[in-house]
Amino acid sequence: MWHLLRMTLRKPRISDASSIAAISLEVWIGTYLKRGVNSFFADFALAEFTVPRTEAFLRDPREFLLVSENEEGIDGFIRLSSGRKAPVPGCSDTEITTLYVQPRHHGKGVGKSLLKAAFQHCRDNDVSSVWLATNAENAAAIGFYRARGFVQVGETHFSIQDQNYLNNVYSRQLD
């Protein structure tokens, strides 16, 4: 366990699945649905961010997760997925699949701490680089990752049914 100011980073338990699913739903909707919620996006989010789906990746040995927990509960998490083929050449097979922090906890070091701990996990397991994709219009996330040494290495698309959304692909070497 890593202890920080008023937060603890720890590996999640299966009993954390509902909290992780709720944070995922909150962050995804808050980030991408700026002008209102319609059934197309609501149906996707409610099908994607479920307790059973979360429990499945918590049990998957190819997934590494850490949660940030304050005195009230979980306020963020990071998920690394190994064995993931990047959408552009030259990347490792380790993806930062998700880094979500509740918006009211932005700027408190939660995301930085989760990312730093995930980097250490990678180093401990001889992973020399990681990659991720983020929406090309998500300026806050892009700024966060660039400030932490990520470099854009290409583009891909995130798809919901027949709709495609431009994503930037970033990679970072770990020292």
Question: What is the secondary structure topology, with strand pairs?
Answer:
Blueprint: E1 2-4, E2 7-10, H1 17-32, H2 39-48, H3 51-59, E3 63-69, E4 74-82, E5 94-101, H4 110-124, E6 129-135, H5 139-147, E7 151-160, E8 163-173
Helix pairs in contact: 1-3
Distance between the termini: 22 Å
Helix content: 25-40%
State the strand order across the main sheet: 1-2-3-4-5
The low-confidence runs, each spanning 5 or more residues with pLDDT under 50, are none
* Helix-strand category: alpha+beta
SSE run: EEHHHEEEHEHEE
Total individual domains: 1
**Main CATH class:** Alpha Beta
**Any idea what the radius of gyration is?**
16 Å
What is the helix tally? Answer: 5
**Major sheet size, sense and barrel closure:** 5 strands, antiparallel
CATH topology: Aminopeptidase
Shape: globular
**CATH homologous superfamily?**
Gcn5-related N-acetyltransferase (GNAT)
Written account of the structure:
It is globular, with a radius of gyration of 16 Å. The protein is 34% helix and 34% strand. The chain has one domain: Aminopeptidase. The two termini are 22 Å apart. The chain is an alpha+beta fold. α1 packs across α3. Strands 1-2-3-4-5 form a five-stranded antiparallel beta sheet, with helices on both faces. Strands 6-8-7 form a three-stranded antiparallel beta sheet, with helices on one face.
